[in-house]
Fold this protein.
Amino acid sequence: MTNASLSEGAARRSVIARLIRRPTAVFGFSLIVIAVAAAILAPVISPYAPDAQHFDGLTIEGAPLPPGGAYPLGTDLLGRDLLTRIIHGARTSLVIGLAANGLALLIGTLVGVTAGYFRGWTGAVLMRFTDLMMAFPALLLAICLAAIFQPSLWIVALVIALVNWVQTSRILYTETTSLTEREFIAAERAIGAGHGRILFRHILPHLLPTIIVWGTLGISTTVLLEATLSYLGIGVQPPMPSWGNIIFENQTYFQAAPWLVFFPGAAIVLLALSFNLVGDALRDELDPTQRGRD
Amino acid sequence: MAAFLARRLVQSALILLGVSFVTFVLLYALPADPVRQIAGRSATAETVENIRRELGLDRPFIVQYARYLGGLLQGDLGRSYLQKTEVAELIAARLPATLLLMLGAIIAELAIGLTMGIIAALRRGTATDTSLMVASFVGVSAPQFVVGLLLLYVFAVQLQWFPIGGYGTLAHLVLPALTLGILGAGWYSRMMRSSMIDVLRQDYIRTARAKGLARRRIVLRHALPNAILPIIAMIGIDIGIFMGGIVVVESVFGWPGIGQLAWQAIQRVDIPIIMGVTLVSAFAIVLGNLLADLVTPFIDPRIRIR
């Protein structure tokens, strides 16, 4: 037992050591740290209040101000500070990213592992339902769902989770079916271990690397879906700032004031990119079949 | 082969049946009342009830669904609530534009993605390789409305190389196709890179090298055809990914396809149109996956159909 946990600790350390040697992973991780710090410290580090409309925040003609001066990234159509709204938008993106993705991961794991372990009728029904969900165009489904419920932060997270669990469940199903056929599971059964013990002591720990990898990559998908729904006006509702709805609110002015689209757009791309880079590095390090491929 | 095809066809039909049911349930649960939308604000309660009866919306859920399904089997997707036109006609009128957009997107993503992947594989481990792979990640991390607006600003507003939006000429197609294709280019470049690296490791490539063939010839004639084959099968799966993207891309560029049709219908609670577009999309996705499965064994005989 002590031996096992020692070698596990060593393995974990070596994964971290190898990750540190990947510049793309370090870059992605740094971006995540910055985004998380910005989200937590939003009220402290923002120059203004997120909803404050400034008299000097618009030109005499009533147009938004370009970047520079008192408003580092310029102002929006209502004369609010764009930098402040982007910093507060990080909260929305991360809260939805973590909540929606956590829920999607939970549903995906539950469905995939149950179907893969018990198979038979339960497995068949669950997997056919997964197939059915895969035939839905994800964005169209999310739009329909978002239109059904009055959009709020948690509803948007729920909608995204209901759309995004499918991929995880497919992957975990495949892994669970091949795990249940291995000798050590048969041995456990032979000595009379119950389903609970086999699932929690043997199956889930083996699936953990996959869950971590897809959990990380999934945050990126979630961030993008939230941004898109908010951009279409059916995600997070103004005045609560989200990077997608900042673009939605200001896009009529986009040709004259492109910074109102590009700064929040860049924030979305960087956050999604950082989780993709870290997730990809984790996949290379944690998935033995990928090792040595490049 | 015939048995496999039959089984997959039955499976596909069942999936479509399931999609129709789930969509119907979702739209039935919609809190916005379509009848109110059709009747307008000033309608009396009597008018509202008449319209409801006329559309059959006063019947129980199961009866409504059965009627819809009956029509569906005869190729009837129902009538639009607001436009009073057959949904099938509306979709058929818009479909060519969407298919053209998808064709453009496939060309764009293959051209960009395969080139990037091949160069990265040949320069493996160098700074070029790393930059290209980071670029491919930027491609998959960029939401389509941001890419679309960026391309629009740079190439239509500033440089004025392409029109800002609309439909009709080849120039109108370039930016929306590129927007839709950049996401796929990200995936293709990564797949192409690893496929190319796998092929370059094979014995027959070493033999070709030992024979003293020029590197150019080895890459183009010996490695490339084999590396590209497994990737072709993926095009079928792309259709599903495009189906989501068209709603956004068509609305950014004012492209008159089924994505825009769906988006307008969602805003007006025109349920038969939403239903129709969802079913057509699901059909395209199922068909795309089926094609991908059917093509794979032809490309790689080691993979047998079970």
